[in-house]
Amino acid sequence: MDATKPVVERAGELAQNGALACPTTGEMLNPDGFIKQQFQGGQIIWSAKTGAVVQAGIPHASS
Predict the structure, then answer these.
(1) What pTM, to 2 d.p., does this model score?
(2) Residues 22-36: tens digit of each pLDDT
(3) Residue of 45, 37, 46, 56 whose CA lies nearest to 2
(4) Alpha-carbon distances of 6 from 14, 50, 60, rounded to whole Å
C-alpha cells in the first residue's frame, strides 16, 4: 500500500468543500514515520497506526 495515498485522498475530499484549501507544502516524512502535509486551512497527518488525521482550522503559511 502506498502510505501517502490516504493523505492525497483525504486532501481531495476536503479541498472540494474548502475546509483545507490549497496545499502550502509537499508531503513531508517525519523521522517517526508520520507523513504530514500542510494546507492554508490546516494539515493532514498520516501514520499506519492512525490513518489520515485532519487538523482543520490551523493556518499554515507557505514555506
Answers:
(1) 0.67
(2) 888 888 998 998 999
(3) 46
(4) 12, 11, 20
